[in-house]
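quick q for whoever's on today - can somebody do inverse folding on this one?? i tried earlier but teh output was garbage lol. tokens:
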């Protein structure tokens, strides 16, 4: 599997893009603003979108994706998400008021988009020997992370989360784990904001990484714009022994 980072910022501005990854040439992991950098043909090839949760920075490109290439495709785009996330999309986004309901366009029997609920721990076979499995996340709305397994190696993306004891026993069972992408949105002095919004600060990240019992290359995502340097400095100070690196837009992983 190949994963390319389209966006990994906690905000926008200049070259910053919100969370989105393309897996090989046919799967999106979240659909933040970075999806807009794909060319039309690249957009047309996307068959599946796996959403971690319903927040705007993770779904904002989904309506434009379907609107742009839905008519070019011979099958619906499949949106994989928790049932609660799907309900939010139906009620608040694809509701004919904010955006057309592409699960009913051109008609309900032949839509441009379809939903497929996911469940924790239940792998989704995405072909070519690849599986994507939802993992528990702890956020202010129902949310998941994902375990991507090529059959040869694995990558875990935590999604947006705070302290999450349920995650680590599952991660520690992944014998072929190679990469861990984990968020840290706020600096330490914003600990209370991180706690209230269910994100991580560097000190909280350090506590979480202590629960990891597998070797893995660790990458930090979802940093707030304007605070990248100080957040990474604080991470190095309290979690440096894990050698975490800042995730970068356009970075690629092969596993």
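ok took a stab at it. sequence:
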């Amino acid at each position: 599997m190949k994963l390319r980072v389209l966006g990994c910022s906690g905000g926008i501005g200049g070259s910053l893009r919100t969370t989105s990854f393309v897996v090989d040439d046919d799967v999106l992991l979240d659909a933040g603003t970075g999806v807009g950098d794909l060319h039309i043909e690249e957009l047309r090839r996307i068959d599946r979108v796996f959403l971690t949760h319903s927040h705007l920075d993770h779904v904002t490109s989904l309506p434009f994706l379907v609107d742009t290439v839905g008519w070019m495709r011979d099958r619906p785009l499949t949106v994989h998400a928790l049932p609660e996330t799907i309900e939010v999309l139906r009620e608040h986004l694809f509701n004919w008021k904010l955006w057309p309901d592409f699960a009913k366009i051109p008609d309900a029997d032949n839509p441009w988009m379809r939903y497929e609920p996911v469940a924790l721990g239940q792998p989704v076979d995405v072909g070519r020997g690849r599986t994507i499995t939802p993992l528990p996340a702890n956020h202010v709305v129902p949310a998941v992370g994902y375990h991507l397994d090529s059959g040869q190696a694995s990558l875990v993306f935590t999604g947006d989360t705070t302290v999450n004891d349920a995650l680590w026993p599952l991660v520690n069972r992944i014998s072929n784990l190679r990469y861990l992408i984990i968020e840290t949105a706020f600096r330490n002095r914003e600990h209370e904001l991180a706690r209230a919004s269910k994100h991580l600060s560097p000190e909280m990240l350090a506590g979480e990484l202590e629960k990891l019992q597998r070797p893995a290359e660790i990458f930090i995502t979802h940093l707030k714009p304007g605070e990248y340097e100080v957040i990474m400095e604080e991470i190095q100070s309290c979690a440096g022994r894990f050698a975490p690196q800042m995730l970068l837009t356009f970075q690629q992983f092969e596993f």
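fwiw The CA atoms of residues 5 and 21 lie 5 Å apart. also The chain has one domain: 2-254. so keep that in mind when u check it
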